[in-house]
Amino acid sequence: MVGVIARHEWSEAAGALIADARARAGMTQAELAARAGTAQSAIAAYEAGHRQPTLPTLYRILAAAGFDLRARLVPADDHDDTLAAWEASLPEAERQRWRSKLAAQRGQAKAWAAT
User: Fold this and answer.
1) CA 28 to centroid of chain Cα atoms
2) Residue 70 domain-assigned?
3) Are residues 11 and 59 in the same domain?
4) Is 74 exposed, middle or buried (0-12, 13-18, 19+ CB in 10 A)?
């Protein structure tokens, strides 16, 4: 099905939003948890993608960091499905090279974002 986000992807995305909001606000997990009315361990679990916050909980945590989450409906984009099909069509060695390159780029992006 096009555009369906797997449960683990939602957890990772929500966790990344929380971690980004907390970092931008210059807060520790404990400080954010206190402001959001939850436990520090819950913030850590969300950020690690081990737990999945409900949408109201995500909004509350982001608001506690001083941010709003705005969502809008847009037409579905099948780019990810197209890319996955293309990657699956590659020979295994090429697929591994491609994944290695992507992992390196993600690492560079993460390092850049941390500065």
Assistant:
1) 18
2) no
3) yes
4) exposed
